[in-house]
């Protein structure tokens, strides 16, 4: 059953938007909008004379590279999962062929210093 959506008014830059979000996401969305609006004000003071679209674009790039690091992390996680699946297949094949998958252990060998 999908989560219940509630209508929320948000102010982004100099515009108001009415969006529908899941009840549990409201706090996260409001915090994110607050961060974005604070960053817009910061860019307005640093780069005077631009229009609002420029400031929103600057914040979008900042947010995607700084705060939105979850996307690249999920891509890394996806790559690791694929590599682990390949390794698992190789281990399964080696076990099926009766090969040893463990390194040989020499009990007289001294550990490296």
Automatic annotation (TrEMBL):
GO terms for biological process: cell division. InterPro entries: Cell_div_ZapA-like, Cell_div_ZapA-like_sf. It comes from the Bacteria. Keywords: Cell cycle, Cell division. This is Cell division protein ZapA. The lineage of its organism: Bacteria, Pseudomonadati, Bacteroidota, Chitinophagia, Chitinophagales.
């Amino acid at each position: 059953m999908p989560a219940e959506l509630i209508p929320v008014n948000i102010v982004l830059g100099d515009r108001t938007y009415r969006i529908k979000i899941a009840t549990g996401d409201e706090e996260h969305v409001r915090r994110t909008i607050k961060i974005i609006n604070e960053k817009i004000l910061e860019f307005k003071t640093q780069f005077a004379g631009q229009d609002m679209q420029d400031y929103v674009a600057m914040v979008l790039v900042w947010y995607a590279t700084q705060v939105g690091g979850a996307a690249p992390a999920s891509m890394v996680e996806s790559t690791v999962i694929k590599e682990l699946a390949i390794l698992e297949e190789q281990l399964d094949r080696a076990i099926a062929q009766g090969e040893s998958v463990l390194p040989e252990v020499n009990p007289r060998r001294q550990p490296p210093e």
